[in-house]
Each structure stands twice: as structure tokens, then as C-alpha cells.
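Hi Y.,

Following your request, here is the sequence exactly as I used it, all 260 residues.
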Amino acid sequence: MEVVIVPDAAAGGELIAEAIATLMRRKPDALLGVATGSTPLPVYEALSAKVRACVVDASRARICQLDEYVGLPAGHPESYRSVVLREVVEPLGLDEGSFMGPDGTAEDVQAACEAYDKALSEAGGVDLQLLGIGTDGHIGFNEPCSSLASRTRIKTLTRQTREDNARFFDSPEEVPHHVITQGIGTILEARHLVLLATGEGKADAVAHAVEGPVAALVPASALQLHPHATVVVDEAAASKLKLAEYFRATYAAKPEWQGI
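Below is the corresponding structure, written out as C-alpha cells. Let me know if you'd prefer a different format.
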């Protein structure tokens, strides 16, 4: 994996936003996979600023969801569809028709999972998938011991993940127990994977994912198998990396035009 260490979250957001903008200039109808939570917000803020400044045209871009809660009513403010519309689609000036995601309200959840996996393939595949990482090393909602070949499916959230997400709800009891998530195998089909991690609380997970063995216990370690995976971390999240100085030197030596 390519590992890029940046000073802070804002610098990481700008770096990734520029990579997305470069993709959109090369492929205006690119399919961008987005993640939710607080970590990717600097990316969306930097990208929307570029759109407002007319340095990139996102009007033909397409957006797809990484995961979705099961059972939240349509329009619930914390459904990931609502979050993505609010934080990505609307700021980029896109219409809702450019957005695709799994149906967390479906009566047949398994059929909804299979339909979404198929829809991603029929859309031509994801050009760039933005990822976060959980404190236990999960990506999407692929919790520890998820199959590295898994497809889009329903998953039961661990207590740790529900506690981590409780800050978005009025009470911990409101956090759903189940989600639809792209599987690790599905995620690995994206042409470019970009994982952003910030804060000391992610340092152990980053170190295990980047420098540890590929193991189902650390789902994010599967990125080591991808031909174009980039991990962007701030100094705090990089604090447990044994090869931090090597990663700094390697990225500093890259030609400026190469980007990430």
C-alpha cells in the first residue's frame, strides 16, 4: 500500500479531494464511493470548495454508498442515504438521480444486498472508493473475522461499533443492530481505494492494517491485496507505524504530477 502521512485532517482532506478532482477531470462520469462518519468530512468540504470555485466540474459525477443501516425509516436523518445526500450530493450540486445505495428498508434484505452488488457492477464499477477504518480495523461494516471474499450482505454490529456510532443518535439504544455493507470482496473491486484515518485512537488499527499480516481479524488489512490502495493518515494516526520515516521519504520522492 501507498501510505501518505499528512500534518492534520485538513491536509488529508485536501489531498484526497484533489485526487478525486483529478479523476473527475479525466473521467467526468466517474463513480465515487463515499463513506460516512466524521473522518471523511474534510474531504467533502475541500471537494465542494473546488466545485464552488469552478476548478472542477462534478455535474456528471455519480455517487455510491458503502453501507446502510437496516430498519431506519426512509428519511431518518441518520440513515446513511440522508447523510450522503446532505454531506456529499447536495454540496456538490448533484441531483438525487446521480446517487445509488442499498435499500435498508427492504422487506427482503438479502435480495436488496444482492441487487446492490449487481447494480455496482452494471454501473461499470467504482472508480475511487473512500474508506474509513474502525478502532477494531473494520472497513465499511465488515467487522473482524469477515470473509476477505465477502460480497454485499447484512451484518450484525459489534457492541464496540454501536458504541462508536452512538454519538450520532439521541441515545445508544437507538443505534440499529444490523446494517447492509459492501463486502470486502466487493470493496476490493474498486479501481482505487483511499483510506483516511485521523487521530491517535486509530493508530493501532492503522498499524495492524498496514504493517501486520493480511488477516480476517483486521479487515482493513485486505487493502494490502489491492493494486492501487492509498492510506492517508495524520501524524497521530501514524504514531504506531514502524516504517513511518520510510513512508514519508517514499512519498516525498514521488513526482508531483503523480498524485496519489
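The chain is about 30% helix and 15% strand.

Thanks again,
Q.
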